[in-house]
Amino acid sequence: MPQTRNSVTVNLFALLFDIIDTENQGRRIILIWLWNAT
C-alpha cells in the first residue's frame, strides 16, 4: 500500500475520532491499533 493512501486513511480515522472522542484517548488507541495492523 502506498504511504500516501495510508496517511489519508489515518487522517480520516483521526478526524472521525477527534469528533467522537473529545478526550483523544480513543483516538490514540485506534491510531496505535491501525499502525500495528498495517
Automatic annotation (TrEMBL):
Domain of life (superkingdom): Bacteria
Organism of origin: Aliiglaciecola lipolytica E3
Name the record gives this protein: Uncharacterized protein
